[in-house]
Amino acid sequence: MKMLEVNDLHIYYGAIKAVKGISFYVEKGEIVALIGANGAGKTSTLRAITGLEKVHSGSIKYKGEEITSTPAHQIVRMGITHVPEGRRIFTNMTVRENLLMAALTVKEKGEVNKRMQEAFDLFPRLKERIKQSALTLSGGEQQMLAVARAIVTGGELLLMDEPSMGLAPIIVDEIFEVIQRLNKEGTTILLNEQNAYMALSAANRAYVLETGNINFTGTGQELLHDQRIQEAYLGS
Question: Strands across the sheet with 16-27, in order?
Answer without folding.
Answer: 16-27, 2-13, 57-62, 65-66
